[in-house]
Amino acid sequence: MQIQHLGRMPIESEASFRKQVDIAWTDFVNKGECRPGQVRDVIHDSWQRCRNRGVEFTQHYPPLVASGSQLDLLKQENEELLLASHNTWRMLSDILSDSESFLTVAESNGVLLDVCGDPQLCEGLAGQRIAPGYDWSESCTGTNAVGTAVALKQPVEVHSVEHFCETVKIWSCSAAPIIDVIDGDLLGVIDVTTLNHAYSAQSLALAMTAARQIEQTLHSRELARNVALVDWFAGSVGRWRQDGVVLLDRKGRVVTANEKAKSLFASEGVDEKLEKNYRLLQPESLGAVTDWEELLPQAIVPVAYEAYNRDGRTEGGILVIRPRQAAVRPSLVAPEATTAGCAIDAIIGQSSGMQALKKRALRLAPSPAPLLIKGETGSGKDLFARAVHVAGNGEGSPFIAVNCGALTRELAVSELLGYEPRAFAGAAPEGRLGKFEEAHGGTLFLDEIGELSLDVQVALLRVLQDGVVTRLGSSKERKVEVRIIAATNRSLAAAVEEGSFREDLYYRLKVMSLDIMPLRERPDDIALLSNLFLQQFAQTYSTELRQLDPLLLDALCLYPWPGNVRELRAVLESMFVMSDAQVLSCDELPADLTTAGLNALSVGAVSTSLPAADTLDGLECEAIRKELILHKGNRSKVARNLGISRSTLYRKIKNYGLADD
Q1: pLDDT (tens digit, 9 = 90+) per residue, 34-67?
Q2: What percentage of the chain's residues is helix, strand, coil (to nearest 5)?
């Protein structure tokens, strides 16, 4: 009897079907072949793949490849697939319960992510290894609907005796692949499974319907994501008017490109690569800008990549390209980012405080001991980390930066220590170096270190103490020589008291420390920074250099800048873009700044009634004004620093018109 059809079960009687397939299976496992036509082609081909991969037909159960934090990480990576699947499950729950069926959802390699269905039936499934974290791929579990659907990227039904491994022959299962509508990538598999006696001819149709619904849900979310991406692109592309610009989504696919980019690709005869949804770069390449040159046409050079992050995740970004002969590329960073080769002298600041800070950084640079850099957000901790590295190790040695605040608890250990091939579900097949190994012979910069969870802090402490790393999935210790520079905008001492940061790690990190002063404590540097930013904007936007009105500069010097240099740059860029004036004035200040913070300007900033600066009263007035700025209006501190009583200070503030009421 010929049984060829892929999607459906044979119409012959159950007993006849089972007997025929049983004979074919026995012949196959004993002789390596069975008579043509005894089983469906899809089953025979799957059996052959299992045999070629060395799958044992007596194998008892699928292996558990992800549990605990590894399973949490796998679920996080497939979060949208699970959400869409749960919505589908809610719609199908009554049907599945009535048919004694359950639904399984697997990721693209065949590892189960979730199981739901008839409560009585689901209760004993863990004992059958039908539970999250178990690998149901063909190479691990033989022929089964989930694994075979993964292998073929097609719907498939596997009934009882058609399974390759003996222990799973009690089940009948129907599975359909979940495909990315945009590029055809396999996202996962949804499967409907029953015990043999409860098999329904509608199971495959149900699985296929569920898969299509999940695909449409995921596609709708991808479209919404791209709408936000394009909206961000519209506000950012102006920085690159003279260059080719390609907007890529999170999978490295082209969303849109400007005419300059299209002409560059057309000149190379590869203009089809800029068609919408073409995968220009692989997702794993998006974090390794230095490798992009090999992936682009020979005459095109990647100049910068500006990432778009949303809710802590990279959703895509702008790839900036130029013709090779015109490219000047000291570093592959966006223009507003820190220049990679920054050294101590390149850090802007001529105030006495900054000069002292630079000298201290130079003294600390040659030492291999850990360095803890403390400072508010936007104050330039990363600049000093890079500068200390360059001064101590030289520009040629590796400098690896890790934003600890962007790492989930599950991801942090594998990111820092690395992992072996197939160390856990979802791991890269070739394994991956950890950041410690990448930084060997150089510096590992751990930004926002206070955000690491306690268990990750333990792993970090071991490396600092022993100087060795052990990748996930390996027992081999690897020696690393790395200088650690950590940075935080939190009080780690307070975190130690709260119990959220390990005391032993804190003392290990703070062998040497560097405290970066906030911008409000060095107002003398604001004019210097502002002029530098205006020069950069003029170059970026291809416009004439603009100036600051003196009254605006006074206002900028008095504002407390909670976001520090980063906020100053953002405010000036906003004014630069929104104004056509050659001289920027207070009128161009953003509305949120004028309403939220510029009440500080009334503290004598632009008063025309202040004493002349060359008189004793003028000098005294200026001293009080600066102290008020420095201490954010805290009059007790101001009086103490000036060596006068608070009542005297209040009287002088009133006399000089410095009152802030």
Answers
A1: 888 888 999 999 999 999 998 988 876 789 999 8
A2: 50, 15, 35
- DSSP codes joined into one string, 117-143: E-HHHHHTGGGGT-STTBB-SHHHH-S
Spatial separation of the C-alpha atoms in residues 297 and 166, rounded to whole Å: 52
Domain coordinates in residue numbering, the chain: 14-220, 241-326, 344-517, 523-655
Domain 344-517 sits in CATH 3.40.50.150 = no
411 touches 385 (CB < 8 A): no
Question: Which band of pLDDT confidence, cut at 50, 70 and 90, is reported for residue 618?
Answer: low
> What is the pLDDT at residue 473?
85
Dist. CA 496–CA 506, nearest whole Å:
8
Q: Which CATH class is domain 523-655?
A: mainly alpha
Whether 344-517 and 241-326 are alike in CATH topology: the answer is no
Helix axes 41-52, 145-152, angle to 10 degrees: 90
Three-state SS sequence of 355-366: HHHHHHHHHHCC
Compare 275 and 518 and report the one with higher pLDDT.
518
Tallying the residues shown for the chain, one arrives at 661
CA distance 595 to 127: 63
The domain made up of 241-326 has a fold known as: Beta-Lactamase (3.30.450)
Class of domain 14-220: alpha beta
Name the least confident of 357-371, 475-489, 606-620: 606-620
* pTM of structure: 0.52
Q: Which of 142, 152, 96 is nearest to 121 (CA)?
A: 96
What is the rounded distance in angstroms from the CA atom of residue 433 to the CA atom of residue 416?
8
Torsional sign, CA 515, 519, 521, 523:
positive
Q: Count other C-beta atoms under 10 Å from residue 54's C-beta.
A: 7
**How many Cβ atoms from other residues are within 10 Å of residue 641's Cβ?**
13
